């Protein structure tokens, strides 16, 4: 079984380097990591940190940590932010830093349209010692590191009850590098908040992730908000062929369900947790994700535009 897990980790290391970005379940509470136009959308200084352990108990399984900070200036018309991420999978690790900027345009009394840009640096590292294989000239004996620039772009529109966004990541490609390049990824997000009662709100949402080479990834989400303090919901993640006819194995389908909750502990502090369960051939593997967020309000408090919702 140990050999099976090692081979699986090696396979996924190669696949992830070539096609996939780190996976998140709680992006619904802070979408800055996938769309720079989201930066500053809460109109306050906002800090969000999270840790994700995927397929716990499997040696070399994915592990991701992220820290995001964003706020507004220029009379709330300009959002600025910083996004730091470290992702590790087997012998391969990726560390990235992006500086986000978003221009916010008030298109109506309750609607804002934003355009975002996030230039950054990405460091890829392969630690050959973690393969446990000796006397193979194709495997590095120590760490090999490469650093490259990258950029993300995005657009984001939201009102008090609706939002939609489109973004692109990994847009700079360097095919002559020794390191396998991630494919360009494009994201579409949308959601709506329904008032069920005075104390209950319902928010269905959708995320579509596409690179035009692998099967299209889709998240269908449904959440309820209780008393403007507790989010409870679930996400169904699957893959399908939309722009190609590629054959999909169990790993490529990536069918999973996530159970997610976030509690507004107090006005400034919120804590979130998600539990992911795969529904394909790896259903015995579980994933845990925790997040902590904090708002720094101004002395003269500024009203946030639907802070609990989007």
Automatic annotation (TrEMBL):
Residues 1-18 form the signal peptide. It comes from the Bacteria. Pfam families: PorP_SprF. Keywords: Signal. InterPro entries: PorP/SprF_Bacteroidetes. This is Type IX secretion system membrane protein PorP/SprF. The lineage of its organism: Bacteria, Pseudomonadati, Bacteroidota, Cytophagia, Cytophagales.
């Amino acid at each position: 079984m140990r050999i099976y897990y090692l081979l699986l980790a090696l396979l996924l290391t190669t696949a992830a380097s070539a096609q996939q970005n780190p996976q998140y379940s709680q992006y619904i509470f802070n979408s800055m990591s996938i769309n720079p136009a989201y930066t500053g959308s809460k109109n306050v200084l906002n800090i969000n940190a999270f840790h994700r352990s995927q397929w716990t108990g499997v040696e070399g399984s994915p592990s991701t940590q992220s820290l995001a900070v964003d706020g507004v200036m220029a009379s709330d018309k300009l959002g600025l932010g910083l996004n730091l991420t470290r992702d590790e999978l087997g012998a391969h690790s990726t560390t990235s830093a992006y500086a986000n900027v978003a221009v916010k345009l008030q298109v109506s009394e309750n609607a804002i349209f934003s355009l975002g840009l996030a230039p950054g640096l990405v460091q890829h590292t392969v630690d050959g010692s973690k393969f446990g294989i000796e006397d193979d000239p194709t495997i590095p004996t120590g760490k090999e590191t490469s650093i490259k620039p990258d950029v993300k772009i995005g657009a984001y529109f939201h009102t008090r009850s609706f939002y939609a966004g489109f973004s692109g990541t990994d847009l700079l490609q360097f095919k002559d590098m020794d390191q396998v390049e991630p494919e360009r990824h494009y994201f579409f997000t949308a959601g709506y908040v329904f008032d069920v009662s005075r104390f209950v709100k319902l928010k269905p949402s959708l995320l579509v992730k596409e690179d035009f080479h692998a099967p299209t990834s889709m998240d269908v989400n449904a959440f309820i908000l209780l008393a403007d303090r507790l989010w409870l919901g679930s996400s169904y993640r699957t893959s399908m062929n939309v722009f190609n006819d590629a054959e999909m194995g169990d790993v490529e389908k990536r069918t999973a369900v996530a159970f997610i909750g976030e509690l507004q502990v107090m006005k400034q502090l919120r804590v979130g947790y998600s539990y992911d369960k795969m529904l394909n051939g790896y259903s015995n593997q579980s994933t845990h994700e925790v997040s902590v967020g904090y708002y720094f309000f101004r002395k003269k408090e500024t009203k946030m535009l639907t802070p609990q919702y989007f």
